[in-house]
Amino acid sequence: MLAGKTVLVGVTGGIAAYKAAELVSLLVKEGSAVRVVMTEAATRFVGPLTFASLSGHPVATGLWDGGNTHIDLAENCDLAVVAPATADFLAKLSAGLAGDLLSTLLLACVRPVLLCPAMNVNMYRHPTVRENIARLARLGYHVLEPDAGRLACGAWGPGRLPEPARIVAELAALASATRDLAGYTLLVTAGATREPIDPVRFISNRSSGKMGYALAAAAAERGARVILVSGAAEVPPPPGVRLITVETAAAMRDQVLSFLPECDCVIKAAAVADYRPAAAGEHKIKKGRDLTLELVPNPDILQELGARKGNRILVGFAAETENLLSNAQAKLARKNLDLLVANDVSRADAGFGHDHNQVWLVWPGRPPRELPLLDKRLVAGHILDEVARLLAARPKGNP
Using an 8 Å Cβ cutoff, are 113 and 138 in contact? Predict the structure, then answer.
């Protein structure tokens, strides 16, 4: 699966850097074109000449070597791997810092990136390191956890860089992942809208944006051009998507409709406020008296999209607390949807704010399908599997 692929190998400054030489050698034997990028600290362990000789290409080390090296490397690879990934490098990448060539190009990279942490066992178990690794996984990076065994420092436990053959196998699995959305443009809405009461208060809901952001990240990994229109969210935007931030339902409607002509599919995962105050106070409303808010309906973005969708695929979400399937079926028909994702937000272990979700997929003319409780990235994969099928089966022609 790696023959003919361009693989970018990042090497950071850990004692396991010597294993990266074997990794490069194995990738070349697989038929890959290998480009190596080293941090300054990595060059203290293994010289760039070693990697240049093994890969057959010059090694990149400096952010100031001239030109757009970081962009060229990021855009002209099929896969990237960092082996070893030190605690220091993981912290920088998790924070979005770009002080060297390797971290800068990874921020610009929209291809799958495999991180292979390797460090002392106590460092690996440190809560900050664990949180950085978890955060990077949430951001869409693939993480190959280290092996356990005797470490170079003499300690015993997890922290060993996996054997290069295992890393190659993991890269092959990533290379075989589907790119079935390449050539399509998907618009995803996410997060919660906010309707102002006065300059400091607003009406909103409990959406964290995690489901919509997971969909956007997964769609980009599968080759789609992704436009993410987001309200308030608790998670950072995934790499490789175009992010448009909005606050109110009206602003979200305007952005969605403006991008609609470009889209093959719209996935409406945002939690849009159904009502807004009839009038927002110009100044902060002082306490000390009873207050009655007059609410008026917000535009129904999904209903409007259903009327305008043409040849596009339209996916909606239904957050319910009762009569889940009957309400979902009614919404599916009423909004002219191709797929509806329904979930019970009254559950204590899933839905708003959680990393997991348990949903039903509901289609016109087909029995609904229940998914088990899954990480939201896995739920996104199931949804996009169906989106890809619907896109491939739709009538040909312009949306």
Answer: no
